[in-house]
Amino acid sequence: MYAERASRLTGAVVWTHTPGPSGAGRVLPDGCMDLLWHEGRLLVAGPDTRAQAGGGPGPWAGIRFFPGTAPALLGVPAHELRDRRVGLSDLWPASEARRLTARVAAAADPARALEEAALSRAADAGPPDPLPGRIVAALAAGRPVAHTADTLGVGARLLHRRSLAAFGYGPKTLARVLRLQRALTLARGGVPLAETAVRAGFADQAHLSRDVRELTGVPPTLLLGGGTR
């Protein structure tokens, strides 16, 4: 069973998941990074460019960071973790990773302990860089990449470089991922696929189907049958 709630950390989501008999399902690209707790280990899930297996059996807990915010909190550029799941001890000094692991292991609610750790890191990091959030807002609204660069007053190369560090991939890939998420929200709300394609920013339903297959590995009709988050 999967459950989530809004975090006290702006834009983040705290979640828990215990896979059922049919397995853990698949995790779809969403532009986010997660800090995970599973079987006594802390892991970082990098930004995905394709669907990933949901992980091993047993309970999971995590905090999913809003796109572009995790690198400043975790201390690693997003592109270094693209399509990867890495132990936190491989990213942080051993003593820091051990302390947080012990704190989460001792907590009655591991998800809340992860949230507290993220809030503490955010307080130490200071005010967030506003540019990644502005990039997400523009691309999530369906703005073309060139228009986004012009609106934000940055050149195409700088936009690409900043996107790699913040999101793990360039703005064109981020735009595709955000468009996929728009389409899934519409389709799961009962909007027919042809209308979903138009409203989400695809050329047509065939374009939607191709993108969904490339990013998730399954056609839209199967994807919406469940087993994803």
TrEMBL record:
Domain of life where this protein originates? Bacteria
**Domain HTH araC/xylS-type per the UniProt entry, residue ranges:** 129-226
Q: Does the keyword Ribosomal protein apply?
A: no
Q: Which InterPro entries match?
A: AraC_XylS_family_regulators, DUF6597, HTH_AraC, HTH_AraC-typ_CS
What keywords appear on the UniProt entry? DNA-binding, Transcription, Transcription regulation
Q: What PANTHER family does UniProt report for this protein, alphabetically?
A: BLL1074 PROTEIN, HTH-TYPE TRANSCRIPTIONAL ACTIVATOR RHAS-RELATED
Listed name of the protein: Helix-turn-helix transcriptional regulator
User: Which species does this protein come from?
Assistant: Streptomyces ziwulingensis
